[in-house]
From TrEMBL:
Keyword annotations from UniProtKB, A to Z: ATP-binding, Nucleotide-binding, Transport
ABC transporter domain: residues covered: 4-228
Span within the parent record: 19 to 246 of 280
Organism of derivation: Mumia zhuanghuii
Protein known as: ABC transporter ATP-binding protein
Sample GO molecular function, one term: ATP binding
Length: 228
């Protein structure tokens, strides 16, 4: 079934100096459980698109629907991981507390929270680091914490905006493999945005290739994943 439906999405930024059309007439569906990569050059409109999907930015025209309901504000069923993981974690909270915070804010009970945090930290291989503070961890580990926090609430859709652009090549390869594992273990639908074609083909079951700004879907490719 279709989880996320984007129809005729357009976003124009207006200012005194003129209009910038960042996204033009973008249409695609995400099926439940898919891992789809969106790839396109820097400045082509990827972040704009992701923010519109996440309900953080209002499109100029077109619609985004999650399970048939129009997205007008950030839905609980969606979680986002941005590139700037460092800034998104609270330095004065332990890893466990960081992951737990959104669950607490959502009013989840204590026992349920504890189980959800443990499951999320386990999914990203950070069981041992629950009591550490973010600043005690490497960049790659911090990004794992951000991923754990995003999946702890068991979102239906996980949106990722160039999440590994700021880490070194080896860490990045590890994190890419981690995303595959998380995807398989948790059965979450993932939309992964990147400017790196290699990364998109490595990770995605399906790759949507975006054109230059304003962004449109140029190609929709199915990737044959290696048998396991
Ligand atoms: P940077 O992000 O370093 O400024 P670019 O955004 O120009 O550089 O390109 C980054 C990567 O995106 C390159 O690996 C390039 O092959 C890829 N790329 C460039 N144009 C496209 C396109 N139209 N669609 C998808 N990927 C592209
Ligand atoms: P990408 O994520 O692919 O690098 P962006 O969505 O960040 O692309 O940007 C797409 C285009 O929209 C670019 O030309 C950028 O300069 C412009 N843009 C992004 N954010 C704003 C904004 N807040 N106001 C005006 N123009 C913007």
């Amino acid at each position: 079934p279709v989880t996320l439906s984007v129809r005729g999405l357009q976003k124009i930024y207006s200012s005194d100096t003129g209009d910038v059309e960042a996204v033009r007439d973008l249409t695609f569906d995400l099926l439940q459980g898919e891992l789809v990569c969106l790839v396109g050059p820097s400045g082509c409109g990827k972040t704009t698109l992701l923010r519109c999907i996440a309900g953080l930015l209002e499109p100029t025209s077109g619609t985004v629907e999650l399970d048939g309901t129009k997205v007008t504000a950030p839905p609980k069923k969606m979680a986002v991981v941005f590139q700037e993981y460092g800034r998104s974690l609270f330095a004065w909270m332990t890893v466990r507390q960081n992951v737990e915070l959104p669950l607490k804010n959502a009013g989840m009970g204590k026992a349920e929270r504890k189980a959800a945090v443990e499951k999320a930290l386990h999914a990203v291989g950070l069981d041992h680091a629950a009591g550490s503070y973010p600043w005690q961890l490497s960049g790659g580990m911090q990004q794992r914490v951000a991923i754990a926090r995003a999946v702890a609430y068991e979102p239906e859709v996980l949106l990722m905006d160039e999440p590994f652009a700021a880490v070194d090549a080896q860490t990045r390869a590890d994190l890419e493999d981690l995303i595959r594992t998380v995807w398989k273990d948790l059965g979450v639908t993932i939309l992964f945005v990147t400017h790196d074609i290699d990364e998109s083909v490595y990770l995605g079951e399906r790759v949507l290739v975006l054109s230059n700004s304003p962004t449109i879907v140029q190609e929709d490719l199915t990737i044959d994943l290696p048998a396991e």
